[in-house]
Specification:
Elements (H helix, E strand, L loop, with lengths): L1 H5 L6 E7 L2 E6 L6 E6 L2 E5 L1 H55 L1
Antiparallel strand pairs: 1-2, 3-4
C-alpha cells in the first residue's frame, strides 16, 4: 500500500479503516512522512522511503523466523517418528510376552 501511495496525486480520495469494518473518507496530502509502529505501542515518523526499507527488513526477518520454525517442526516430527517406532516395538514385545504367559 505504501508503494502505491508514492504515485498517488495530492487530493486523491481514500478510505481509512478505523476498526470494526468502519472507514472514514479522507484525501491524500503530500506524502512527506509516514507514521510507523515500532512495537510496544510506540510509533515514529519516517520518510516514505525509510518506511519502505524498514517494512522490507521486517518482512525479511519474519520470513527468516518462519523458516526457522518450519525447520524445528520438521526436526520434531522426525523425532516423533523415531520415538513412535520404538514405542511400537516395545508394545509388540509386551504383547508377545503376554501371549507367552497365557499359553
Amino acid at each position: 500500500a505504501l508503494k502505491a501511495l508514492r504515485d498517488v496525486e495530492e487530493g486523491t480520495p481514500i478510505l481509512i479503516p478505523i476498526g470494526g469494518g468502519t472507514y472514514i473518507d479522507a484525501r491524500i496530502k503530500a506524502l512527506k512522512r509516514v507514521i510507523v509502529g515500532v512495537g510496544a505501542d510506540v510509533s515514529v515518523e519516517m520518510k516514505p522511503e525509510k518506511a519502505l526499507e524498514d517494512l522490507s527488513n521486517r518482512l525479511e526477518e519474519v520470513e527468516r523466523a518462519s523458516r526457522a520454525v518450519e525447520q524445528q517442526l520438521e526436526q520434531l516430527l522426525t523425532q516423533m517418528e523415531i520415538h513412535q517406532e520404538g514405542i511400537s516395538r516395545l508394545a509388540a514385545e509386551l504383547r508377545g510376552r503376554a501371549g507367552v504367559r497365557e499359553a
